[in-house]
Amino acid sequence: xxxxxxxxxxxxxxxxxxxxxxxxxxxxxxxxxxxxxxxxxxxxxxxxxxxxxxxxxxxxxxxxxxxxxxxxxxxxxxxxxxxxxxxxxxxxxxxxxxxxxxxxxxxxxxxxxxxxxxxxxxxxxxxxxxxxxxxxxxxxxxx
Length: 143
Description:
Blueprint (H helix, E strand, L loop, with lengths): L1 H4 L6 H23 L19 H26 L4 H18 L2 H8 L2 H8 L17 H4 L1
Helix pairs in contact: 2-3, 3-4, 3-6, 5-6
């Protein structure tokens, strides 16, 4: 994810920050996947007993990485004299988030478990008809 977004970006601080949040995204998705069997489904609040596919976890990781990288790039544009390459990286991140947004409700249902759903749904900005997911599920109120 980081390499795709950062094509042409030479600033080592920006590259390191985006790489770090992408790695952290994989860690968080993995950590929540390991304890998924202890959680409840985000809509029914019943224990989660279904299997989760590797492809689903990979998609979740990509989305969390994209959302966090997008925030790093936005902050860089807001606070620093960013060059055109950083601006283009931010545009690529925005474009990708718009493209994947329509698939997110289905992915959230596949993830099922509250913590994973909240991690994914609050990582990326939601637009249009999907804004109802922007605040997560309220898992903190349940647990």
